Amino acid sequence: MLTVATEGWPPNVAKATALLAPRGVAVVASPEDAPLPFADAAFDLVTSRHPVRAHWAEIARVLRPGGTYFAQHVGPHSVFELVEYFLGPQPEEVRSGRDPERERADAEAAGLEIVDLRAEELRMEFDDIAAVVHFLRKVVWMVPGFTVEAHRPRLRDLHEQIESGGPFVAHSTRHLFEARKPDA
Questions:
Q1: Does 51 reside within a domain?
Q2: 107-156 residue pLDDT tens
Q3: In terms of residue numbers, what domain contains 98?
Q4: Looking at residue 55, which CATH number applies to its domain?
Q5: Is 83:90 a contact under the CB 8 Å cutoff?
Q6: Structurally, how many domains does the chain consist of?
Q7: 54: three-class secondary structure by DSSP
């Protein structure tokens, strides 16, 4: 069985290779917006976790007839309470990006049948400022350029808010896709 992983974020390529190569999985560095580097109808299953953008035409191209796409996507305005706490209100096109119904339409336009689509909004609680700092240092795209030094006044205000009023609450949105390429 051929098992291949693609990774578009350069810092993760070496990490993914170290973890997956011992399990017989090849890791292919593939820029985010590039065509998938595989032949047409190469796979029975394509999976993804948190793609920046699903390239539906490419997914449909590399799936064999009857093949399945199974993935968890980040939903619209995920953790935006925290993003907007630091960056201020975001434009509507940013807030409404990653809409599951828009993604459904795009998948269907690429010739895929949606078998299942489930959307969830999950509560996140930050009980102290260390948790906020840790999160923003790990998820670097949420508040680009985040540093404690640059955001010290907002961090201090948030610390005081958490100390006096309890955890800072945000919501993570996710949607689970199962799509199928019709049989030939």
A1: yes
A2: 999 999 999 999 999 999 999 999 999 999 999 989 999 999 999 999 99
A3: 35-180
A4: 3.40.50.150
A5: yes
A6: 1
A7: coil
